[in-house]
Design goal:
Length: 407
């Protein structure tokens, strides 16, 4: 069915302004955006949006849909339970207005297939497969007393989000396996993190040769590498070795930001997870080691965003929420408002994320030829960033791939 949205006030995702116009949807694409409405179309569903605002569907560039527990140790979790929770959470993401998400480790070809066949209703999903980690790296969630794993390349990380690989040949094999299974991009753990039990946030992880091999394999496949990295040392090293996007980057400084800018790399901050840990961590049984390491990375998170912007680094939008904390996805908007204008945040969550994910002109923008992933809002999003809440209550309509999800 062809659709025509008339009398719309449009934020296109790219420009910091609202324009008046009409959006013609043919199938799953935006066919035309016009200033004047001419009722010459036949067999078309005309929807009058007088007084309402239209913008591109939101994109969360850092989720873990299979992280059904706040603790990423999932050794005792049934696969069915992990999948069931992921399907529920993806549906909720869509109802909040996130029509696309980039999974940073965990989602697999099976979940993609379920979405493609419309068995469940969820966002467009860009998967990394298993995030790659060295032994004792940020993706190694085994307890210290767990048995030694002699293989250089193992799925046994005790978590659904990652696998362990050590050595150049092993990381090449692991990268190729993720790509074979449908990965849109490759995720690596390039530094320590707060959720992992055996490393320090300041650790550098993988050798230069290993990271270079991973980047080379991704590039050969026509895609890119995203890296979990906190410290300036980890960020600079990753970028110089060819990584495209830095996840978290809380300890970013001027030197690292300049390197990122020179290499046209992206920063994807994830404020929501730290805020959720602080407010609700003890209630949802967050591991003690996570809460202990939290303060180190949380206090500089906002400064890192300002540092990135001051140095011309493109800043994306992510949340990184786990388990029961996924419901707080929309808090990222309010948290970003401490350093961003509403436009800057929404630009990050639409146009910038799409460009980073090699989907420029297809997602994150209202223009001819883009996918018809749209939100209709009751108020101007460029004036009130708090329109976005955990229930999507201020979203009148959600259109994904040209079809109504909410009307």
């Amino acid at each position: 069915m062809k659709k025509l949205l008339v009398n719309a006030k449009i934020f296109d995702g790219k420009q910091n302004k609202i324009t008046s116009g009409n959006i013609f949807i043919n199938g799953n694409k935006i066919s035309k955006v016009t200033e004047k409405y001419e009722p010459i179309y036949k067999d078309i569903d005309v929807i009058d949006l007088e007084g309402q605002y239209v913008m591109p569907g939101l994109i969360d560039a850092h989720v873990h849909v299979t992280a059904n527990l706040v603790s990423l140790y999932q050794e005792n979790e049934h696969q069915a339970a992990i999948y069931a929770k992921s399907f529920k959470e993806m549906h909720q993401m869509l109802l909040r207005g996130f029509t696309s998400v980039r999974d940073a480790g965990g989602a697999d070809a099976g979940i993609l297939d379920v979405l493609d066949k419309k068995i469940i209703c969820g966002p467009r999903l860009f998967i990394s497969g298993k995030a790659l980690s060295q032994t004792a790296g940020h993706g190694d969630f085994r307890h210290k007393t767990d048995a030694f794993e002699p293989c250089a390349c193992s799925l046994k990380s005790a978590s659904s989000i990652s696998m362990i690989c050590d050595g150049v040949s092993a990381v090449r094999k692991a990268t190729r396996e993720q790509l074979r299974q449908g990965a849109s991009q490759i995720k690596i753990m390039a530094s320590g993190g707060i959720a992992s039990p055996t490393d320090k946030v300041t650790n550098l992880q993988f050798s230069d040769e290993e990271i270079s091999a991973i980047v080379e394999e991704a590039n050969h496949f026509g895609t890119y590498v995203m890296a979990h990295a906190y410290t300036p040392e980890a960020i600079i090293r990753s970028i110089k070795l060819g990584v495209k996007s830095i996840e978290h980057g809380n300890l970013l400084n001027m030197e690292a930001a300049k390197v990122m800018s020179q290499h046209k790399a992206y920063l994807v901050p994830t404020l929501a997870i730290y805020n959720a840990f602080t407010q609700y961590g003890s209630i949802v049984e967050t591991p003690a080691h996570t809460l202990e390491k939290l303060q180190l990375v949380q206090k500089q998170a906002l400064e890192s965003i300002k540092c990135a912007k001051d140095n011309g680094v493109s800043v994306g939008f992510g949340t990184d929420l786990l388990g029961e904390l996924m419901q707080y996805q929309s808090t990222e908007f309010k948290l970003r408002s401490k350093v961003d204008t509403p436009f800057e945040t929404l630009h990050s969550a639409t146009y910038v994320n799409a460009k980073m994910m090699n989907m420029e002109g297809k997602l994150g923008i209202i223009s001819n030829g883009a996918f018809a992933d749209l939100l209709v809002l009751k108020e101007n999003p460029l004036e009130n960033i708090e329109l976005f809440d955990e229930n999507g209550s201020n979203i009148s309509m959600i259109i994904q791939d040209g079809k109504f999800i909410k009307q």
